């Protein structure tokens, strides 16, 4: 009876509650640019492919934008490796470190000979993600010279995240140009509609150019040297379509072009192709693929973008702050919408994304598994678990590589690497090799997948990997006296600490406890008994280190808040009650004091995350 009384009490509020106008919510945060701003690039994409443009709506000025947010064209499949005639191998980067009474080998960046240094450089740089092309405009001034960014006036560009459309307007010497850009939501394709009197004046063409990989930490996709080390050609050309091929050593891919009306495609300079038309409007589609495929038309890509983004925004959760009087609400709402758009483009792929997604090509394009939590969990928390789960299958594909690391180091189960290539092979790193906070991520992500559906199918899908991940975690903890310790021989999420002396970081201790307990729950859900060795670690795991009423970054750093060296980098201690839910051993009052101290004393000019 009480339940029904409460229903009557709440009924007036339920009757007058209004559904969120999701289109209005998204569109009031459309991104508008009115100048050639190298930090204001915008992208279209689908999670597996992204295309980033400048204020012209295409990739017209890649060199100009190279030091800002580069104009990239990236995919999950687009990778390349330089030849390896000297047969460099990862094993040559392995160095032994004394841990737990034995020598444990790690792939690090410490080379003493010329060959060791060359090995480390090669393995870190290969394979690297490719910038697939520059697809932009050639704009000619009245004197015949090519226009520069400063020659464009009347710029107004708008990204409508509800439809995925980028609408760009600018003028060259008083003549307008209109560009409408879309990204296909199920194919690695981009399409644009370009309108301008400049076509008839023979002062506007479309240019597709293939850059060469830089082999650098960041590849902005604007390197045009080494033209003899790769090849590009028109494979076929018929009517309103063409197939282009780009080959780099043993790797190749294709660009399929489709356009409307009368236009001519020709080879120009090395690795450069020009599409010329004299009609007032030209629509162009480009599909990027490792093999030959059918390119969608502009209309098909437009429809795919509109339908795909509408489906995205009308699924899952939404928050509307339009009636909120707090002056911070509008900015918070804007950040929520933009973040959801960007993570859908950059992080919804079949492997963990690189740290900078598909917008910016950093760290040679390689995934960093400690960042997968940040890239993926939000999908599940907003009710879009299927987008998060796209990348979980990658762990299954790379489990043998992860198991090999654990076997080599003398641990049970599987040890997930930190910096890896697309095949799951680890990359030498004097910091990354010693990180451990990526290890529980798989359990966290799998648990979100289970909570979404809570059925036996999800358990069967991930249970063996959850088990093997926990096996490593339990075997990694060292029994010292009557307690288990994490380290020495690790670098915590706050990477300024040194592996030789660091042990028991607060965040990692908290994460270890949560993940091992969650792995036990997975066994119980399958009607299996709890693992005794996991429970032994749980019962004896070191308490969270504290001093003077606050949590320390690590037990090995009692000077966490008096030594300036330790008040930089990630303030990761806060993740123990932020990333992690409150659990046994966590005192929220102590953590609030810790937050207040960090807020007051931290060196925020040298902080990440």
Summarize the structure.
With 609 residues, the chain is α+β, with helices and mostly antiparallel strands. It has 15 helices and 24 strands.
Strand order of the largest sheet: 1-10-11-12-13-20-17-16-15
- Alpha-carbon distance between the termini? 50 Å
Which whole number gives the mean pLDDT?
Answer: 95
Q: How many strands, what sense, and barrel or not for the largest sheet?
A: 9 strands, antiparallel
Tags for this model:
609 residues, alpha+beta, 9-stranded antiparallel sheet, 15 helices, 21% strand, disordered N terminus
Topology:
Layout: H1 2-16, H2 22-27, E1 31-33, E2 42-45, E3 49-53, H3 62-65, E4 73-75, E5 79-80, E6 94-99, E7 102-107, H4 114-125, E8 128-129, E9 134-139, E10 152-160, E11 165-172, E12 175-183, E13 189-195, E14 204-209, E15 231-238, E16 241-248, E17 251-259, E18 264-267, E19 272-276, E20 281-289, H5 298-313, H6 329-347, H7 372-381, H8 385-389, H9 393-397, H10 399-409, H11 441-453, H12 456-476, E21 478-480, E22 483-485, H13 506-525, H14 532-540, E23 546-547, E24 550-551, H15 588-601
Helix pairs in contact: 7-11, 11-12, 12-13, 13-14
Summarize the structure in words.
By secondary structure, the chain is of the alpha+beta class. It has helices spanning 2-16, 22-27, 62-65, 114-125, 298-313, 329-347, 372-381, 385-389, 393-397, 399-409, 441-453, 456-476, 506-525, 532-540, 588-601, and strands spanning 31-33, 42-45, 49-53, 73-75, 79-80, 94-99, 102-107, 128-129, 134-139, 152-160, 165-172, 175-183, 189-195, 204-209, 231-238, 241-248, 251-259, 264-267, 272-276, 281-289, 478-480, 483-485, 546-547, 550-551. Strand 12 and strand 13 (189-195) form a beta hairpin. Helix 7 packs parallel to helix 11 (441-453), helix 12 crosses helix 13 (506-525) and helix 13 runs antiparallel to helix 14 (532-540). The protein is built from 15 helices and 24 strands. The protein has a nine-stranded antiparallel beta sheet. It has a four-stranded antiparallel beta sheet with strand order 9-14-19-18, with no helix packed on it. Strands 2-3-4 form a three-stranded antiparallel beta sheet, covered by helices on one side. The model is unreliable at 1-11 (pLDDT under 50). Helices cover 30% and strands 21% of the residues.
């Amino acid at each position: 009876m009480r339940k029904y009384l409460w229903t009557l009490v709440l009924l007036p509020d339920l009757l007058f509650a209004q559904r969120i106008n999701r289109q209005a919510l998204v569109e009031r945060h459309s991104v508008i640019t009115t100048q050639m701003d190298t930090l204001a690039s915008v992208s279209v994409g689908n999670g597996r492919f992204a295309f980033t443009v400048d204020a012209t709506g295409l990739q017209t000025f890649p060199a100009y934008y190279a030091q800002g947010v580069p104009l990239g064209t990236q995919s999950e499949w687009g990778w390349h490796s330089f030849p390896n005639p000297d047969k460099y191998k990862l094993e040559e980067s392995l160095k032994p470190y004394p841990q737990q009474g034995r020598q444990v080998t790690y792939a690090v960046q410490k080379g003493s000979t010329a060959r060791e240094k060359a090995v480390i450089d090669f393995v870190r740089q290969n394979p690297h993600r490719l910038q697939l092309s520059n697809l932009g405009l050639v704009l000619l001034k009245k004197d015949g010279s090519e226009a520069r960014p400063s020659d464009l006036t009347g710029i107004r560009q708008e990204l409508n995240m509800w439809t995925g459309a980028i609408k760009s307007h600018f003028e060259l010497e008083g003549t307008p140009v209109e560009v409408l850009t879309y990204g296909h939501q199920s194919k690695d394709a981009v399409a644009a509609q370009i309108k301008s009197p400049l076509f008839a004046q023979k002062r506007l063409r479309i240019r597709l150019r293939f850059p060469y990989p830089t082999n650098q930490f960041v590849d902005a996709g604007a390197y045009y040297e080494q033209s003899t080390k790769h090849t590009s050609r028109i494979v076929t050309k018929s009517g309103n379509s063409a197939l282009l091929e780009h080959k780099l050593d043993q790797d190749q891919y294709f660009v399929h072009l489709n356009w409307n009306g009368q236009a001519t495609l020709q080879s120009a300079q090395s690795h450069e192709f020009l599409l010329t038309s004299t009609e007032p409007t030209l629509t162009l589609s480009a599909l990027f693929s490792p093999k030959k495929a059918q390119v969608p038309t502009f209309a098909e890509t437009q429809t795919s973008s509109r339908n795909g983004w509408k489906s995205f925004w009308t699924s899952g959760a939404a928050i509307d702050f339009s009636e909120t009087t707090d002056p911070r609400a509008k900015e918070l709402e804007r950040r929520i919408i933009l973040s959801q758009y960007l993570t859908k483009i950059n992080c919804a792929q079949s492997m963990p994304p690189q740290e900078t997604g598909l917008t910016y090509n950093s760290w040679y394009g390689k995934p960093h598994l400690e960042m997968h939590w940040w890239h993926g969990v939000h999908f599940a928390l907003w009710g879009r678990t299927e987008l998060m789960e796209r990348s979980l299958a990658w762990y299954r594909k790379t489990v043998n590589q992860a198991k090999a690391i654990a076997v080599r180091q003398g641990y049970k189960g599987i040890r997930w690497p930190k910096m890896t290539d697309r095949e799951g092979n680890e990359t030498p790193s004097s910091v990354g090799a010693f990180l451990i906070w990526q290890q529980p991520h798989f359990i966290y992500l799998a648990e979100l997948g289970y909570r979404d559906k809570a059925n036996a199918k999800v358990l069967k899908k991930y249970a063996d990997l959850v088990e093997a991940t926990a096996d490593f975690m339990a075997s990694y903890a060292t029994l010292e006296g009557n307690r288990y310790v994490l380290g020495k021989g690790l670098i915590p999420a706050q990477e300024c600490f040194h592996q030789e002396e660091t042990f028991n970081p607060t965040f990692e201790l908290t994460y270890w406890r949560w993940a091992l307990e969650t792995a036990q729950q997975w066994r119980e859900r399958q009607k299996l008994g709890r693992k005794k060795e996991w429970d032994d670690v749980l019962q004896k795991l070191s308490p969270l280190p504290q001093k003077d009423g606050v949590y320390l970054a690590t037990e090995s750093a009692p000077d966490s808040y008096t030594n300036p060296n330790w008040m930089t980098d990630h303030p990761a201690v806060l993740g123990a009650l932020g990333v992690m839910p409150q659990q046994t051993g966590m005192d929220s009052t102590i953590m609030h004091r810790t937050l207040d101290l960090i807020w007051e004393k931290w060196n925020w000019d040298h902080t990440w995350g």
